[in-house]
Predict the 3D structure of the following.
Amino acid sequence: MAPIALITGASQGIGYSTALLFARKGYDLVLAARQPDRLSAVAQEVQALGRAALAVPTDVRDAEQVKALIHQALNHYGFIDVLINNAGIYISGPVEEFSLSDWHQAIDTNLWGYIHTIQALLPHFIARGSGTIVNVSSIGGKVPIPYLTPYSTSKFAVTGLTEALHSELLPKGIHVCGIYPNLIDSNFMERAIFRGKDERDTQARRDQVNQVLKVPVVEKPEDVAQAIWDGVEHKRDEVIVGSANLSVAANRAFPSLMQWVFRKTFKLKDQH
Ligand SMILES: NC(=O)c1ccc[n+]([C@@H]2O[C@H](COP(=O)([O-])OP(=O)(O)OC[C@H]3O[C@@H](n4cnc5c(N)ncnc54)[C@H](OP(=O)(O)O)[C@@H]3O)[C@@H](O)[C@H]2O)c1
């Protein structure tokens, strides 16, 4: 019987690449994201690779929808081996420009979305005495990044969630792994939230990220998919992806300098 992986945010970007990689490695899949058409298209690609795929349109911010997702997945396959928490959004700007609703978008998707799946699936993993939970965090969950405060808040929380779960669940046969990518050329700009002092500042922030994404050394969703595979296959507690290793090391060695560089880079019109 093929192993089963459930991937959130599977319709695009890192989740999409991870779905195809896991299918090639012999996994059958449960795919979750909000937009049904895109999700069905990914399910068809997985099926074309000779693997089964169950597409379940789900908003991970809604605990009831996530419960229904897990229920449907377990009814369909009977078991799940790997949970890959990946659905997330990017949010950037001066902290005073974010509304409470912006904060909720970030925390509800990037943190609560992960908690909802873990809460719903953990009893199954504990009953089996096995299972793997992968949480896609970010370099922003290891290194504080000014002008990404709600994002960094959500990702630091995911790091804490991952590390505490790793320690607690290890003796119960459940493996927990955190993934820490740098900026990745995925589809995140489609749903990214930018805020600024005014419209020009907001647009400049958007343009700045678009410019950086054109730099050829920026890593691709396939690189993160490979890191996730590596984490699952070799039972790693964390995988820091490619260039993110450099950022973590630089921040450890020269924290003030790194924070100065970040502030300079992201300040734009936010002058005081
Ligand atoms: N790209 C980067 O630079 C980068 C760097 C470090 C970490 N990451 C992390 O990697 C993960 C994936 O990001 P990505 O870059 O691949 O983003 P992406 O290309 O924008 O893909 C995001 C995926 O998540 C789904 N999604 C978003 N909100 C959702 C919700 N409320 N419920 C269910 N699904 C939802 C989207 O589909 P629908 O819109 O149809 O729901 C889509 O499938 C995120 O956790 C992100 O924080 C990304």
In short: Residues 4-267 form a domain with the Rossmann fold fold (CATH 3.40.50.720).
